[in-house]
TrEMBL record, chain A:
It catalyses: a di-trans,poly-cis-dolichyl beta-D-mannosyl phosphate + L-threonyl-[protein] = 3-O-(alpha-D-mannosyl)-L-threonyl-[protein] + a di-trans,poly-cis-dolichyl phosphate + H(+); a di-trans,poly-cis-dolichyl beta-D-mannosyl phosphate + L-seryl-[protein] = 3-O-(alpha-D-mannosyl)-L-seryl-[protein] + a di-trans,poly-cis-dolichyl phosphate + H(+). The chain crosses the membrane at residues 163-183, 189-207, 214-234, 246-279, 300-319, 622-643, 655-674, 694-714, 721-737. The lineage of its organism: Eukaryota, Fungi, Dikarya, Basidiomycota, Agaricomycotina. This is Dolichyl-phosphate-mannose--protein mannosyltransferase. It comes from Pisolithus microcarpus 441. It is found in: Endoplasmic reticulum membrane. Pathway: Protein modification; protein glycosylation. InterPro entries: ArnT-like_N, MIR_dom_sf, MIR_motif, PMT-like, PMT_4TMC. Transfers mannose from Dol-P-mannose to Ser or Thr residues on proteins. It is a multi-pass membrane protein. SMART domains: MIR. Its EC number is 2.4.1.109. Residues 1-58 are annotated as: Disordered.
TrEMBL record, chain B:
One of its GO terms (molecular function) is dolichyl-phosphate-mannose-protein mannosyltransferase activity. Pathway: Protein modification; protein glycosylation. It is found in: Endoplasmic reticulum membrane. It comes from Pisolithus microcarpus 441. It comes from the Eukaryota. It is a multi-pass membrane protein. Belongs to the glycosyltransferase 39 family. It is an enzyme of class 2 (transferase). Keywords: Endoplasmic reticulum, Glycoprotein, Glycosyltransferase, Membrane, Repeat, Transferase, Transmembrane, Transmembrane helix. This is Dolichyl-phosphate-mannose--protein mannosyltransferase.
Length: 780, 752
């Protein structure tokens, strides 16, 4: 705080003239002084008198070009500390990185997905592709051929260059440290606080541990850090709008958003931080009466271009690459539309005869997101009609085969007569090929969706009734367009609905999972409401066999990128939401969001055999607790300042207040937006979900320390001592827990039990804090 | 809205979201009355014929002339006629009378029941039923069942009377909010002729009391805010404040939706306190008096009131009924049929019954029926009632030939943490057994089947062995943490061979097991569902006859109260099944669909609002949002609209009503339980007041006479619309063509 604080820290007595202006508690009470000099009826606010009310790093004039080496060194001295920190970071990240020669934890997933890229097989995963493509790229660079299965806990064979791959992943982790430093600099924190940020990023064991394996988290963290960094860079350009640098940092922010969301959807949270910042910024600009409309629009346009269109473009580019690379059939086919599958090398859908005729054997795929194939099996419903079950099933199986036959009360199908094609509006009967029963519905409530009718299989090849009749209603054809021009049903491309002739309901499969008696397959029911846009009632013919028809041609089955892109994203979303914890199962790896801020438990990353290195994902307690504490302190401080402001005390000048709020907002919104959504999510959560969140609490602890100590009116000596103590504590704390990231060798019992008990005050703190931890300690 | 500059102090703003006016805290108000009025108020005063020397302020800010009181009486009579017209029809059960009529019967019979709503409204209905001689025998089983021996008219009169009383409250609220008499009249008649409110208040349902108490709270809170601007801490001020507190307690004791009313009052109070804090003429001491007075009356009093209602509830329901199954064993001990005392000590050779801690599934049970699938061995279930088949004999698994082990003469052997035991089902002589077979319903890889296995004389195998793990004992009984004691020790049973824990959850087995609860052995068991305790133990032969006996501890009021709250909460959040007439919140403001209450003999009662009133209230909410949004944009661009006193006045008025509306509506979007149109009624009340406020604003420049004429036209339209749909409210005969014609919106499904 500057020297004028002494005069500012007093109670401001207001003149009687002002009280009238203080009429409303809403946001519209702009500076009360403004009321005294109104000019005319439609008067607008007088623009604030020049002089910058700013936050962020103070702008320094560019130095003159260096003329000598000493000049150069002198000018770049500020980059020395981050360079040292980066070297240290290299050491911590790469130290003994190949110690565990087995597949650790989720390497089993991400290593495997990397292999799929190298083998170009289509797979399905809940995360977007960028991270896994980078894993594959690392594999490619280090000479991995993609033929390892990555079974959890298995020993790496000599053909897998796992150390090189881990080093490349860890490089992203190394970069976190300089990014942390420069972000702090750009936020305008004091040098002390910058050191603190760098130290905390360097010394957190959880960040260290997660960066050392073939996982996505190091990349996610890296792009989260870059997004914040670019945002702060951009903020510091706010008085040079539309300059080259301004455009550069804005565009880089956008690209970084695109990358972070392409690694994991958690990246949307940091996108939200940028979004809130931008909205507030534009709102302020909207109130700036000096700015011309043209400039207003340019600002809006620039934001829309760089922060919305650019990220979407980046995100879609990675998906395009994803589709281009993965052009062979693989384990993930079933999640995609039939039409997409037809294009994968090794798939024979394109051989399907083009148009469906009576007597054809087909499989029907639901076009809802993640929809499966219409399926039936000999097992019956335990309740309702107790007839044979009809479900949706994701895997290829003879029980998915249906014969298209004419209605009961019409001429029967005769394989020798002239071929009849199925037309829009035809009444057909679908006969389940293995059991010869017909697809049937009746006014009995479906097992799960009680408002719908049950669908079952009934009768046999000669017995049946009118409730086996279904009317084909074509919606459209992906290749041929609207239904008006359509006549016949084409395999793969025609989207059709099946209406029950008697009940008028529509065959639907809406992702409701049957209980165990239905083998956890998807419920099929008949929905009464006719909603023509309900995609869960859309079906297409996936496989089609008819000996009397010629094979199809691949040129009839083109698939559009946008459609596949959208389909895949919705499928990812659906499976992500389906990762719901079983309430009966005590998953020792999972944790609840409330456990994270106080680090109530960690995550065991591999087996605990005596002879293998053991890794345990647990943060450096001081960093985690300090971060959480600083968030509370910040909110309390803000509350106190606001109450005092309301009582007309002036604690800070405008610049100080703007700085306090700016850094506080970035850190608090960041933390909150990365934390609160986990409470709403139904899916199972793990400790590593908190790792991006932690960054914001680290920034907050530096900010709070900066505000209360380093930038406050303390003696220089006190500041030094306090900094020294804090820095030492962080490093010592890290050193204490380093083994969890570097690998604990030998039997845990002796090693850890001894060590942890030796530390007097610390284990006391831990025991007092929580019993879960001591439980883990017992189990060591 | 041109901001014609009127550089003048703002008008005395209306209440609720009121703010600090310059004259608010002068003791006593020293300005002469004339100076205290701005132009609007002066014109208004003149229009009422007051002279400038009119007295300071009326109680609660209600300036009502005797003419208006007469008008109010007429409105009241109209409302009574509309609400009570043929209230005895139909003489059969309508819609949720199934529940609330039944609950009244339960209260009279003192049989315990559990409902998701707090008791106040049900108690009122019960009181009426009791006074008129209802004996509680009628069971209100199905919609359409004819009443026999039920004073159903008296019971229906409770919601109906409260429904009538809502109407003058609306009038007075708007008057206290400084609206004109014609506006208040419009609002009260809109409410009178709102078909939905009429239909809802004519039957034994809780929504009419809820709306009444919401209206009452709003009124007294507005009155309090008026007092607050004039003379804080006066006797009147305290009266209004205490009334607000009581009324808040009442609204939340009708339905939990009342919490939204509390939120509304809370938001306004916090804002008011914040503004007071900014008033440098209010010392911190005065401010803290303001703060604590509100904390006392708006937090403590409602809580006390709410708890009192439950105290009455517990006092009335003294005997067991169909609500027992929801409650813990301790709780049930207070509902008649208590359990006799049982022996405290358990040892090898005791005959015991074992209960599951976390669910109300009951006792570990087995019976002479086998699993149809799986191993095909004897079923093990949880059974909620006392029965021979719940008895188990504890045996020591570590000795050879254990069934012949002579526990009667060997020294007594208590069961401690780590004891290896076998449990023998006494009636069928089978051992509690588990093995690597999937259970019948929870067929997942981490669950194993639990069965009864063995024969008389056959010693069984190692799969019958269970290890006792004591989780916790009772705090007052040190011994119970060290060894198993009846009722006091919670323990887990680990299967020796597979390491899984004996487990149960609220999953029912199919008919072949008589819908009893499933018991499994879970390898990754969540702790809560794997805890068990011993409820009864027979006398062990080694124990003296006067050995220590124990029983459940009788819970005090607070623990009963708290338990019931939790049960209500879980029951409420489990109401997620679809109902044929349920609806989602977004559809309410547009009145997409009603609820079918009752159909018989070609007559129908169907809950549907008065479309004119309903849609105009929605339109005024939208208008408010749009205009306010526009004003915010303008303010950001530097326009000084908010210096206009009239605008400020209406901003405060509409802002208050809109806050009420939003807080009673938006939270429903977060609820996943089944919702119905009638959940919108409290919000509708605020929306109708808001539409009147909009009317007041729109006609503020008109002469009083013309304003009245406009109001009359609106009222007539409302009455005509009401008339059109009134057969659905009264269940009176209707022609098919009229019915079809009334289907204005395709989704109104009353015509069939």
């Amino acid at each position: 705080m500057s020297s004028e604080d002494t005069s500012a820290r007093r109670r401001v007595a207001k003149g009687p003239g002002c009280s009238g202006g203080f009429m409303s508690g809403s946001d519209y009470d702009t500076d009360p002084l403004q009321y005294d000099d109104h000019k005319d009826g439609h008067s607008k606010l007088r623009p604030p008198i020049g002089g910058r009310v700013s936050s962020g790093r103070l702008h320094k004039p560019y130095p003159t070009p260096p003329t000598s080496i000493s000049d150069f060194i002198h000018q770049n001295l500020e980059h020395l500390p981050p360079a040292i920190y980066t070297l240290l970071s290299c050491w911590t990240r790469f130290h003994k990185i190949g110690l565990a020669d087995i597949v650790v934890w989720d390497e089993a997933h991400f290593g495997k997905f990397g292999s799929h890229y190298l083998k170009r097989e289509f797979y399905f995963d809940v995360h977007p592709p960028l991270g896994k493509m980078l894993v594959a790229f690392a594999g490619l660079l280090s000479g991995y051929d993609g033929n390892f299965e990555f079974k959890s806990g298995e020993k790496y064979p000599d053909t897998v260059p796992y150390v090189a791959m881990r080093v490349m992943m860890a490089t992203f982790g190394v970069a976190l440290v300089p990014l942390g430093w420069y972000t702090a600099v750009e936020l305008g924190l004091s040098p002390w606080a910058c050191h603190l940020v760098a130290l905390m990023v360097l010394c957190d064991v959880a960040w260290l541990c997660i960066s050392r394996f073939i996982l996505l988290d190091s990349m996610l963290l890296f792009f989260t850090f870059t997004t914040v960094f670019f945002l702060t860079k951009f903020h510091n350009q706010q008085y040079q709008s539309f300059s080259f640098d301004w455009w550069l940092w804005l565009a880089l922010t956008g690209i970084s958003i695109g990358c972070v969301t392409s690694v994991k959807w958690v990246g949307l949270f940091v996108t939200a931080v940028v979004g809130i910042y931008t909205i507030e910024d534009l709102w302020d600009k909207f109130g700036d009466l000096r700015m011309s409309t043209r400039n207003q629009l340019r600002h809006w346009g620039a934001r829309i271009l760089c922060l919305i269109l650019l990220p979407i473009l980046v995100y879609m580019t990675f998906f395009k690459l994803h589709f281009l690379i993965l052009n062979h059939t693989g384990p993930g086919d079933a999640q995609m539309s039939s039409l997409f599958q037809a294009h994968l090398v090794g798939n024979d859908f394109w051989r399907n005869p083009l148009e469906v005729a009576y007597g054809s054997k087909i499989t029907l795929k639901n076009m809802g997101w993640g929809g499966g194939l219409l399926h039936s099996h000999v097992q019956t419903y335990p309740s309702g009609s107790t007839q044979q079950q009809v479900t949706c099933y994701h895997y290829k199986d003879d029980n998915n085969h249906w014969l298209v036959l004419p209605r009961w009360n019409g001429p029967a199908y005769n394989p020798n007569e002239e071929l009849r094609f199925v037309k829009n509006g035809d009444v057909i009967r679908l006969q389940h090929a293995p059991t010869t029963r017909s697809l049937h519905s009746h006014p009995i409530p479906a097992p799960i969706t009680k408002l719908n009718y049950e669908v079952s299989c009934y009768g046999n090849s000669t017995v049946g009734d009118v409730q086996d009749h279904w009317v084909i209603e074509v919606v459209d054809d992906i290749r041929q367009g609207k239904k008006e021009s359509l006549d016949r049903i084409r395999s793969l491309t025609t989207r059709a609905r099946l209406r029950h002739e008697v009940l008028g309901c529509y065959l639907s499969a809406a992702n409701k999972v049957l209980p165990q008696w239905g083998f956890k397959q998807i419920e099929v029911s008949c929905v009464k409401e006719n909603d023509p846009d309900d995609i869960h009632t859309y079906w297409n013919v996936e496989s089609h066999w008819n000996d009397r028809l010629p094979a199809g041609d691949v040129k009839h089955y083109k698939s559009a990128f946008l459609r596949d892109f959208w389909h895949l994203n919705v499928a990812m979303m659906t499976s992500n939401n389906a990762l719901v914890p079983d309430p009966d199962k005590d998953d020792i790896l999972a944790s609840h969001p409330t456990d994270w801020p106080w680090l109530r438990l960690g995550l065991r990353m591999c087996g605990w055999g005596d002879n293998q290195p053991k890794y345990y994902l647990l943060g450096t307690p001081l960093v985690w607790w300090g971060g959480t504490l600083s968030l509370i302190v910040f909110v309390a401080l803000l509350g106190i300042y606001l109450v005092r402001w309301q009582r007309r005390y002036v604690d800070m000048d405008a610049t100080g207040w703007a700085h306090f709020l700016y850094v506080g907002k970035v850190a608090f919104y960041g933390w909150f937006l990365h934390y609160a959504p986990f409470f709403i999510m139904g899916r199972v959560t793990y400790l590593h979900h908190y790792l991006p969140t932690l960054y914001f609490s680290v920034l907050m602890s530096a900010h709070v320390m900066d505000h209360c100590i380093f930038s406050a009116r303390w003696k220089e000596k006190t500041k030094r001592i306090l900094f020294g103590v804090t820095a030492f504590a962080i490093v010592a704390n890290f050193w204490w827990f380093r083994g969890m990231a570097w690998g604990i060798e030998g039997p845990v019992n002796e090693y850890w039990g001894l060590q942890w008990r030796k530390v007097g005050f610390f284990s006391v703190v831990m025991e007092a804090c929580d019993d879960n931890w001591s439980a883990i300690r017992l189990s060591f | 809205m041109s901001a014609g500059v009127r550089a003048r102090r703002p008008a005395t703003p209306p209440l609720g979201l009121s703010n600090v006016t310059p004259s608010a805290h002068r003791y006593p108000p020293s300005l002469s009355r004339k100076d205290d009025l701005d132009a609007d108020a002066r014109r208004q005063a003149a229009s009422k014929g007051y002279g400038p020397g009119h007295k300071g302020h009326a109680p609660g800010g209600l300036d009502i002339t005797s003419g208006e009181w007469k008008l109010l009486v007429i409105v009241l009579i109209v409302a009574t006629l509309v609400r009570l017209f043929r209230i005895s029809h139909p003489p059969s059960v309508v819609f949720d009378e199934v529940h609330f009529g039944k609950f009244a019967g339960r209260y009279i019979k003192t049989r315990y029941f559990v409902d998701v709503h707090p008791p106040l409204a049900k108690l009122l209905i019960t009181a009426a039923a009791f006074l008129f001689g209802f004996d509680g025998d009628f069971d209100f089983k199905d919609i359409g069942k004819e009443f026999v021996n039920v004073p159903y008219v008296a019971m229906r009169m409770v919601p109906a009377t409260l429904g009538v009383a809502t109407i003058p409250l609306a009038y007075l609220t708007l008057r206290a909010l400084d609206c004109k008499a014609s506006t208040a009249l419009l609002a009260s008649l809109f409410l009178t002729f709102e078909n939905g409110l009429v239909t809802q208040s004519r039957h034994i349902l809780l929504d009419s009391p809820l709306v009444f108490f919401t209206a009452l709270t709003t009124f007294v809170f507005v009155g309090f805010s008026n007092e607050d601007r004039h003379r804080p801490f006066s006797e009147q001020w305290w009266t209004w404040l205490v009334l607000t507190g009581l009324s808040l307690g009442a609204v939340v004791s009708c339905k939990w939706v009342g919490l939204f009313t509390i939120a509304t009052v809370g938001v306004c109070t916090i804002l008011r306190l914040w503004l007071l804090l900014g008033d440098s003429r209010v010392s911190l001491k005065t401010w803290s008096r303001h703060f604590f007075a509100r904390a006392l009356c708006l937090i403590a009093i409602p809580i006390l009131f709410y708890m009192t209602m439950f105290e009455i509830h517990f006092m009335l329901l003294g005997s067991s009924g169909d609500g027992d199954a929801f409650m813990s064993s301790e709780f049930r001990q207070t509902l008649g049929h208590g359990m006799p005392d049982t022996y405290a000590d358990v040892a090898i050779g005791s005959q015991i019954t074992i209960r599951h801690v976390n669910t109300q599934g009951g006792y570990l049970h087995s019976h002479l029926h086998n699993y149809p699938g799986g191993s095909g061995q004897q079923q093990i279930t949880l059974y909620p009632h006392r029965d021979e088949n719940n008895l188990w004999l504890v045996l020591n698994a570590t000795v050879e030939n254990y069934p012949q082990y002579d526990y009667e003469h060997q020294p007594i052997e208590y069961i401690t943490h780590g004891s290896r035991i076998k449990l023998r089902h006494i009636v069928t002589d089978k051992a509690l057994h588990s093995h690597d077979v999937r259970p019948p319903v929870s067929d997942v890889d981490f669950q194993n089947e639990v069965s009864g296995y063995g024969l008389t004389g056959f010693t069984g195998d190692l799969n019958d062995d269970w290890v006792v793990e004591i989780h916790k004992g009772d705090r007052n009984d040190k011994e119970s943490s060290k060894r198993l004691k009846t009722l006091r020790t919670h323990f887990k049973l680990r299967h020796l061979m597979t390491g899984c824990y004996l487990f149960s959850h609220t999953v029912k087995l199919p008919e072949w097991a008589f819908d009893q609860q499933e018991v499994t052995c879970n390898k990754q068991a969540v702790k809560d569902n794997s805890l068990w305790y011993i409820e009864t133990a027979s006398k062990h032969p080694q124990l003296p006859p006067n050995a220590e006996r124990v029983n459940y501890r009788i819970p005090g009021f607070l623990s009963k109260f708290w338990e019931l709250q939790k049960v209500m909460w879980t029951t409420n959040s489990k109401l997620t099944d679809r109902h044929v007439y349920d609806s989602r919140p977004w559809s309410w403001p547009f009145l997409r669909r009603g609820i079918n209450f009752w159909v018989k003999d070609h007559k129908q009662i169907y809950l549907i609002g008065n479309p004119f009133v309903w849609w105009s209230s929605t339109a005024s909410v939208m208008t408010y949002i749009l205009v306010r949004g526009f004003l915010i944009l303008r303010a950001k661009r530097g326009y000084r609209d908010f210096e206009n006193t009239k605008l400020v006045k209406y901003d405060m008025l509409c802002g208050f009503l809109f806050t009420g509306y939003a807080l009673h509506y938006i939270p429903f979007f977060l609820m996943s339980r089944q919702l119905f149109l009638h959940h919108y009624f409290p919000a509708l009340y605020f929306a109708i007041l808001l539409s009147s406020a909009v009317f007041d604003f729109a006609t503020s420049t008109l002469r009083p006479r013309i304003r009245l004429q406009v109001a009359c036209v609106l009222i007539i339209v409302a009455v005509l619309t009401f008339d059109k749909f009134s057969p659905l409210a009264y269940g009176s005969p209707w022609t098919r063509s009229k019915c079809n014609k009334a289907t204005w919106v395709k989704t109104w499904d009353f015509a069939w």
